[in-house]
């Protein structure tokens, strides 16, 4: 390459642009600023594109601290939804892990310790996932499934959502008799807080419906079908054996044409008398125009003495409790923080099925502050070096 000489004493060095064999040679200070700028952009790009590290999972302390025990006493159920950021249908280990995580904090229900409900996204459950759920002790899955996996009971989202602007009151008003209305609820999606529909909530709280959960509704129906009823003279004996899973009471309607003299349980105590407006499941009995409704606990026996031997007698298992038209539950999906998910319902009569999801623990990526410090140090050092080098070249 031929030598080119430029007189800097006659020209402003910052305005000199020289081409040598097609290459554009920028002035020294321009070259310094350009290189330093490129270095800064590169370092900042690395810093801003470096992902946060999710190395482990956190514990939701609200499960066993204040909120959890209060919701359990209220009648809520705690089921599973897996681990945040992990697909239970692809990573089957989270099914059992979520169960153990939940049991370590709280009972699943007032009727049983082990969780039996699992939230599965999508419309299908493959046989391998279904087998893993059954092996882990789960009995119920939901809530958009179009098919029922073998060995499991599917719950369907048929009540819409409780989110404001999404809730469908007409859908809730058209519920079929003896059905369970399952309403979707999620308090947060990423950083967005969702609001509940207070008008729909207020309306629901005034309805004559059974406020229940997935597991309670399911096992109440099973227990009702296993109640054994016999009539001998003027005494009706009702017995329900112990259940292998949750100890949920079952209800039967007893129809007879004689008055009730006395009701006593196996310990010769009088069972609780259920009020007409009772909407939460309890054991006891209530007299009706044609007989009585009896809700009996597993492992107990109840004797009903009549004033006389009835001419007609009929026993019918009941799907719903206390003669109510249908049942309602609100299902809290992806519940990573029980306080956030339940804070708007502390004074509500609604009963929830909480599908607990263990939250991911977001750790700071320590590369970010290191890179930021490197940027702060490297840029001025680089500029100073380049300027000194260019000045040296100019002087030479």
How is this structure best summarized?
With 396 residues, the protein is an alpha/beta fold.
Overview of the structural elements:
- Helix 1 packs antiparallel against helix 9.
- By secondary structure, the chain is an alpha/beta fold.
- The chain is built from nine helices and 22 strands.
- 28% of the residues lie in helices and 28% in strands.
- The strands form seven sheets. Strands 4, 8, 11, 20 and 21 form a five-stranded parallel beta sheet that branches. Strands 12-13-18-15 form a four-stranded antiparallel beta sheet, with helices on one face.
- It has three domains: 67 residues, no CATH class; 194 residues, no CATH class; 101 residues, Immunoglobulin-like.
- The N terminus is likely disordered.
Features:
disordered N terminus; Immunoglobulin-like; alpha/beta; 5-stranded parallel beta sheet; 22 strands; 396 residues
Number of beta strands:
22
Number of domains: 3
Amino-to-carboxy terminus distance:
19 Å
Low-pLDDT runs: 1-26, 46-55, 364-368
Average predicted local confidence, pLDDT: 86
Number of helices, where a helix is a run of at least 4 consecutive DSSP H or I residues: 9
Biggest pleated sheet: 5 strands, parallel
C-alpha-based Rg, rounded: 35 Å
**Proportion of residues in helical segments:** 25-40%
Find the structural class using helix and strand composition.
alpha/beta
Overall shape: it is elongated
Strand fraction equals 25-35%
